[in-house]
Write a structure and sequence with these properties.
With 123 residues, the chain is mainly alpha-helical. The chain has two domains: 5-69, Arc Repressor Mutant, subunit A (Orthogonal Bundle), CATH 1.10.10.10; 74-121, Diphtheria Toxin Repressor, domain 2. The protein is 67% helix and 5% strand. The chain is built from six helices and two strands. The protein has helices at residues 5-18, 26-33, 37-49, 65-87, 92-102, 108-121; strands at 53-55, 61-63. A two-stranded antiparallel sheet has the order 1-2. A hairpin with a 5-residue loop joins strand 1 and strand 2. The longest helix is centred in the middle third of the chain and has 23 residues, at 65-87. The model has no long low-confidence stretch (mean pLDDT 94).
Length: 123
Amino acid sequence: MVKNESAENYLEAIYELSKTLPVVRSIDVANDLGFKKSSVSVAMKNLKEKGHITVTDAGFIYLTETGLEIAKTISERHEFFSGWLISMGIDPETASDEACRVEHIFSERSYAAIKKFVEKHSK
């Protein structure tokens, strides 16, 4: 894992946007996250240097294998935590906002234990 909440959020945003857009650009990420394009450009440079994304000459952003792995992990955690909160009566918007914060703090081991516990006790 990246162990950097900001980087994980960017990778997750690229991943989610790539599901609905033919190509993802910095402006798409900026609009999705509500950030300035200049801030996103700096983040994209950092993600590229770490080998998590590639950027074409046309500005199209693609996740590398490691970037995709991280993005899928964070996205899965987000879906799990938001779904769990919604099942407890939290409104979807609040659940999604809070899941976005919680998805980053647990180690893989702790997350697996939480998920196992919730799934066992949800039946």
